[in-house]
Protein 1
Amino acid sequence: MTSVDLSEFDVPGRGRGILDVIRWRYLLRLLVRKGTATRYRNSVLGWTWSYVKPGIQFLMYFLVVGYIFNGNRGIANFPIYLFAGLVAVNFFNEAFGNATTAIVDNRALVKKIYLPRELFPISAIIVAFVHFLPQLAILLVVSLLYGWVPSFAGIGAMLLGILLVAALALGLGIFFAGINVRYRDAQNFVEIIRMVSTWASPVLYAWTLVQEKASGWILHLYMSNPVTVAVELFHWSFWEPTVSPDAELQPHGFPPHFSLYLTAALVICALVLIIGQLTFRRFERSFAQDL
């Protein structure tokens, strides 16, 4: 009886998880192209909405929080401070939301053919990043008008902030994407997290206000939030260079123990990615049946 070498064959329905993205990158490019092409299909304004929607959101927060509630008090160049934080949080919210619904939105492909299911949430993250770029471009232009001077350290801080947001959104996204196929309640939990994320990070206020109201483990937990760390990296990259060093308005520089908070945020992102991948792998066995 002759034996057949099966080493070059894949076991149907199983793969190496996120690592398969490298092998199937041509499919990833197709999914990203599809996501970017269909977002504003049959829209008159098209990609202009990528500028209009964050602009209106910024304007509402700026007027309501900044002037009606005096949220700009004590923060120099409050428009840059506010928009830098909003850009980071908006990227997280869109990436997280898109990744959560990626499997359900592509049910036709999931039920008909096999391909690594992780490609769908990962492509959703990349599509969110593509739509994040116009907001980043606006932030760059406005920062330049306020006297911002780019530096290698500032650009590095920005890239690190983007990496943190993308990693956290991917980890949470694949976790809830797997659960959402069987239990659609997961999408409601995601909406709650997205709603809270804007207020759970120093976007509309300074972190010093949290320090005044909370201390000890509560403050450490708040500052270890990867989104909070990413927001502060964006503030340091774009807002901090526009503020005079001898200005009385606070805050200046990174919060105390920021290196520890950054390390904690990186560890949290790694753990969330691992837990998300394991959960996704467990639920993906029945994706076709549940859909």
Note: The first helix runs from residue 20 to 23.
Protein 2
Amino acid sequence: MTAPDDDRRIDLSVFDDGLEVLPDITDDERGSSWGETAEDDTARLLEDRPPHWG
């Protein structure tokens, strides 16, 4: 007779191949996916600031 699944020990180290299962950020969240460059956009963002922001 076998033990219930709750009591069975499974060695998960055999499944660790070093690959990331779920990334922290997906490709569509990166600026490069939207055509943005890696340069500093601070000046452009300050220029595009709405007038009601003061």
Note: The chain has a mean pLDDT of 78.
Protein 3
Amino acid sequence: MDVTTKEIAFECLPIVRVYKDGTIERLYDSGYAPPGPDPSTRTASRDVVIDPDVPLGARLYLPEPANSATSAKLPILLYFHGGGFCAGTAFSRLYHPFLCSLSARARVLVVSLDYRLAPESPVPAAYDDCLRGLRWAAAGSDGWISAHGDPARVFLAGDSAGGNIAHSVALRAGEAGLALEGVVLIHPYFWGAERVGSELRTGAFLRPDHMDGLWRFVCGGGAHHNDDPRVNPLVVEDEWTGRMKCRRMLVTGAGKDILRDRARAYCDRLRESEWDGTIEYFESEGEDHVFFLFNPRCQKALELMDILVAFFNKSG
């Protein structure tokens, strides 16, 4: 049967479509980008296997000339890609140029995690994989990390579902005694049973009616709902804010993104809590969800890159 005539079981555009015969179309896939030296940014990249049994891998980015004998140790940035927990890869043409630029501009050693995807590996597989990747990086388990990374300056960052993952891994890192310097949530995927603010409108990129069913889908169905604290941390009072052990946070939004207002509310919750860190919010006016990946040379994307670089380079 032709794919155009098959019955759809679930879809969340523009991320994924699943047919009743089990066929999965991952619409967020932009194709594979090979690792290696990038002349335009003077970064080197290579792929590593963290745990072959999972399997779990990552792509590492090292700014040049970090390999010189006199180079100072670099902050270590664990990056988690977006894709609604069910699409995307650390090895894609969408993320490779962005992370080359970020590594070069911010002078950070990037570990971009290629975590398992739903529905084959439902949540919490992505959380578990990314926490495992953090432990691996913090232990200096790779030659680049042990030679060039500073274990006293570890950051987490991610966009969309990757921002959600960064939030969750930051909470679990505190429980595990893993120290974090900072966390960056770029257009984070948080949702809820009751729509609020920007979620009431249909965006050019994300549709609220599709987002309503995404969490249950990536969790494998059953009784999972949109007020699960992992996707809606605001439904829990202040219990989670006490587990946030990083010193600094940056949350970014986009003016046309339907996820924008919940990201703002997340910042407000942290500011009003007894958490003793500092949090910044930055919004790209007139832009939609993860626009910087699709149009990296536009003025707003360059402005966002400047904000990210300033956050990673900030001391004290």
Note: The mean pLDDT is 94.
Protein 4
Amino acid sequence: MFGFMLFLHLGGLLAWVGGLIVVIAMIGLLSKQLGASADSNLLARKSLSIFSYLAHPGAVLVLGSGLYLILKMGSGSKPLWLDIMEMGGGTIAILSLIVTGILGSKVKKKLKAAGGQPVKVTGYLTTMTALMVLILGVVLVVSLKI
């Protein structure tokens, strides 16, 4: 069971990070065209929806399987990398779920109501990039077992 949960944990991490990469790339490439045409707005809204369907379940899967793996490891003295994975990874996953949900819906509303006006998404892209850096930072610390 431990091996299966580890597989789910890594699969969820791939879906979560992959979804973030896709939305950062798509919205970043479309950012200059947003608001100017209905097609680019529709593509951006669809990209955000697909991101939500990939990344949110991935983050929930990482949280659930990570909790199971931590409980199976037991308590006691833990190395630093495991503490960072527990506290940092869990906090980032919960923060990511909340922030991406709220900001994604705000950007979708802006895109829907653009009406030919330019739509600024720099705050959204900056936040998504910061989350990506935090996630990859935790993955790096865990991979190096610092």
Note: The chain has one domain: 2-144.
